[in-house]
Structures are given as structure tokens and as C-alpha cells.
Give the backbone structure.
Amino acid sequence: MPDRMMFFEDTYVVLSPRLEQQFVSYLELRQILHRLLEQPGVEIPLDLRQLDREQQIDRLIATVCEFSTAEGVWQWYVVRLEK
């Protein structure tokens, strides 16, 4: 039986367009994505346009691992820091 810890997603590594890497919590990732989606001129993917902001963030975290902005591509990946 798999360990429940394998499915506990609370830490992410975020790679900014400047190739700076940072470890963030789930809530911090949500804040980053919210800030990115609020930028003027950002092109929100078609499948997200009908959703409210919180649903857009939920969908991005659950289904993709990158988002393009005018400054470049942001990427995020869930990581497990404990064994």
C-alpha cells in the first residue's frame, strides 16, 4: 500500500523566467499565480476564461506546470522534501 505522504502536495519548486528557483508552499504558489493572472495584457488560456480567478488557479495547479507571461515562462513542480 502506498504511503499517504506520497500524495501530500504542500511544497512546490517555482522556476521564474529569469531561471531563479524557489521553494514555496501551496498558498505561496497560489499567490504567485494570482499575481501572474492579474498582470495587464496576460493571455489567459481559452479553457480558463469562463472560470473565476480562484478556479483558474486551481485548474493551473491541478492540470499544468507552466504559464507564459510577457516576461517569459513560469514553471512549477510539486516536490516532496521528506522521505
Observations:
- The beta strands are 11-15, 21-25, 66-69, 72-79.
- Confidence is low (pLDDT under 50) at residues 1-7.
- The chain has two helices and four strands.
- The chain has one domain: 4-79.
